[in-house]
Write a structure and sequence with these properties.
about 110 residues, single chain, mainly alpha
Length: about 110
């Protein structure tokens, strides 16, 4: 029989790997955004997005941009594909985090 500790460890591992994929894709999106959409890059403070002094309100601007799929009318298909990927990875990461927390609470 599989122990609860093994299930929690496995879920934490999968969640961590998926979250790192999300952060890496977000970094790639910001790099691509610098050329494809410079105005948005400035609005979300792309240069200091991942620093300690990054502006949370500007980061939330990118979240809302992706949430409402404002990128769907953009002319660069590579940029649109990267936005879709980041959006999907964010949704999966949040779902995995919720499942991991739920399972942890149930097992403990």
């Amino acid at each position: 029989m599989i122990s609860g500790d093994l299930i929690i460890f496995t879920l934490l591992l999968v969640t961590t790997i998926n979250f790192s994929r999300y952060v890496t894709s977000l970094r790639a999106l910001l790099f691509l955004m610098r050329e494809a959409h410079p105005l948005l890059y400035q609005q979300v403070d792309g240069g200091s997005f991942f620093t300690a002094h990054g502006n949370v309100y500007k980061q939330a601007r990118l979240f809302h941009y992706l949430k409402h799929k404002e990128y769907s009318e953009h002319h660069d298909s590579g940029f649109v594909a990267k936005c879709d990927k980041v959006r999907e990875l964010f949704v999966v990461s949040c779902a995995l985090l919720l499942v991991t927390l739920f399972v942890t609470l149930v097992v403990i």
